[in-house]
Amino acid sequence: MEITLGAAPPVSHVRSRFPYAPRSIWKGVAEDQWNDWHWQQRERVTSLEQLDHVIRLTDDERRAVIEADAQFHMGITPYYAALMDPEDPTCPVRLQSVPTMGELSFAAADLDDPLAEERDMPVPGITHRYPDRVLFYTTHNCPVYCRHCTRKRKVADPTSAAAKSQIEQSLAYIALHTEIRDVVVSGGDPLSLSDDRLDYILGRLRAIPHVEIFRLGTRNLVTLPQRITDDLVAMLKGHQPVYVNTHFNHPRECTGEAFDAARRLADGGCVIGNQMVLLKGINDDPRIVRELNHKLLMMRIRPYYIYQCDLAKGISHFRTPIEAGRRIIRSLRGHTSGMAVPYFVVDAPNGGGKIPVNPDYVVRHEGKRWVLRNFAGKEFTYDEP
Ligand code: SF4
């Protein structure tokens, strides 16, 4: 089935500071303070009282901020909070950061550890599932606690943070396993660490001869772009090749600040990819994904994956049918630049790994004859020599 989206909307960049929040509690904050990532971390919105001054809360949100706290804390940087529409509870930024009562209703399929990351953990802090790469947890802090987080079982829990001894144990494991060539430095968000701490970890990894590349999994570009300082970029330059996987979910997140942060990282030699999560009511619309991916390409960020929302506990209200993702890919493939078309994957429950579930363009295959369908729904035959 062909999907026509019509003309793309013009790409606009908004400066984030108070685009929506006339009642903002940060109006008097000086520019240099606002741009200081430490200040942003310190001043996060973590209580009902603070949030009440930022948005007009619904009864559902008001209840959820209190009742969901035991499951997963709330934390929102002033920068990200200022992107929320104070009057609209369906605002995509608000839905990602303000708790709703949906978090307290559990579906039968929900799992505490949906990707079985703890099961494939040879030492605390390392998930080693695929032959040549590992996931390395360095912190469980994040600037914003995303309500759809797959690791909410430990993110935002200060008692589960990676202690120094755990980091050393993880580094020793990587050094011992010569098959590991790719390390995903993750968390939480590794950019929650200080530059010095990160420099130490990356330096130790770079000194291991069989580690060829590492990837930083960070949402700071989205939730705290002020974190991408010149000092951070200079430090990362010393550890190249560095890949950065980030997590934009909606074009509203592509602000002027995020553009600047991505430019600094790209100019510093980092290769940036985006991993969007498909979320009901936020981005399960082909037009939104197309606009997002066009903006990302302008930011020198390659749309890399769209993830089907996984089976983490208390996020069933965000889940869409798998077909919604396939429809989005069909709407992109051939209709816009191939670089704007990511892979759509299900990260399979119980440690099955990422499985592509993209639309099929093979109509039939008989012997050496392949009948294929193009993006416009027309069939073509390719005869193998
Ligand atoms: S930044 Fe990532 S790890 Fe942190 S809360 Fe959001 S989704 Fe979870």
Give the number of DSSP strands. Answer: 12
SSE succession: HHHHHHEEHEHEHHEHEHEHEEEEE
Low-confidence stretches: none
Proportion of beta-strand residues = 15-25%
Taken from the alpha-carbon principal axes, the silhouette is globular
* CATH homologous superfamily caption of the domain at 126-359: Aldolase class I
Bound molecule types: iron/sulfur cluster
CATH structural architecture of the domain at 126-359: Alpha-Beta Barrel
From the N-terminal CA to the C-terminal CA, the straight-line distance is: 30 Å
| Cross-sheet strand order for the largest sheet | 1-2-3-4-5-6-7-8-9
Mean of pLDDT: 92
Biggest sheet architecture = 9 strands, mixed
**CATH domain fold name of the domain at 126-359:** TIM Barrel
Total helical segments: 13
Task: Put the structure in a nutshell.
The protein has helices at 31-34, 37-42, 48-52, 59-67, 78-81, 92-97, 164-176, 195-206, 220-223, 230-237, 256-267, 286-298, 322-332, and strands at residues 126-127, 133-137, 182-186, 213-217, 242-246, 271-277, 301-307, 343-348, 353-356, 362-366, 369-373, 379-383.
